[in-house]
Amino acid sequence: MELLKLFLSFLKIGAFTFGGGYAMVPLIQNEAIEVHGWLTNKEFIDILAIVEMTPGPIAINSATFLGYKVGGILGSILATTAVVLPSFVIIILIAHFLSKFKDSPYVDWAFIGIRPVVLGLIISASISVARNAFIDFKSVIIGVVLFYLISFKNIHPILSIVLAGVAGVLLF
Amino acid sequence: MYFEMFKTFFKIGAFTIGGGYAMVPLIQDEVVEKKEWLSDEEFVDILAIAEVTPGPVAVNTSTYVGYKLKGVKGSIVCTLGTVLPSFLIILLIVTSLWKYRNNAIAEKAFLGIRPAVAALVFSAVYKIGKGMNVNKYMLAIGLITVLAVVVFNVSPIIIILVAAFGSIGYYKNREKK
What we know:
The structure holds two protein chains of two kinds. Chain A is an all-alpha fold.
């Protein structure tokens, strides 16, 4: 019964989280703490810290984590599947629809208008990342040097993350 | 091919720290520049779709790319690839590493990684913009978007919808003339 509730909860979280990332934090908080009492507030904050430090989408990480807490390995599989399922189905429907209408001028026109908006959205996202990242002079240096290396020297993004981690340990 | 797709998105899933747009540079590097499965325009279109639909951006993108390359089977392979690394890492943490959660070295490493994530996202904007031949109208719309989101907290979904219908209206009108 608890597992079914878990599955439904994360199905709901997956279906109503737009924009990804932190948008789902209040939803999870509501479902996990207030509605079902699976977690205390303090545990939730600990989980968020872990989630931020581990790779992968925040929604997936929290689902796996909470699923494990509520129902072990099976719980984590159920919660993770549930959180992915709604977007998976919706995206396949859209991809299918778009491939059918790809010669329609309306689809073309819509995307011509949308593209610069998406660039603006990515810039906005990087501004909010930058606000948390650039806390002192050292972190600004790391950011500027890496921007140069990634944009103009083509070092691999994964290598840059590893380098930054090492630099963090050495500098801070 | 399926293995190649799985491997690519597994790598993206494993190195996307901080979620959301942090995966944009990685996907751009792997899927657009190296594998050439998508053009810059297609990639930006997918980001727009990912933004107006629910779910994590990384998952949506992998589902879409998978579908585009190999239909439903492809989308399952790519989505699994994206999800699996975080799933396994979180399981590892809850089963054995939970007690080290306040580790000082990890915290320092993340002080370095956060600026790197910011640098990565900025450079993705730079590369995508270069690949798309941004003209002055696009630049203006982009800047208005930044203002609307950062200063006025407008929902991205609303801006995307306004841009889509505005653009359709503009071109429809021009066609008539």
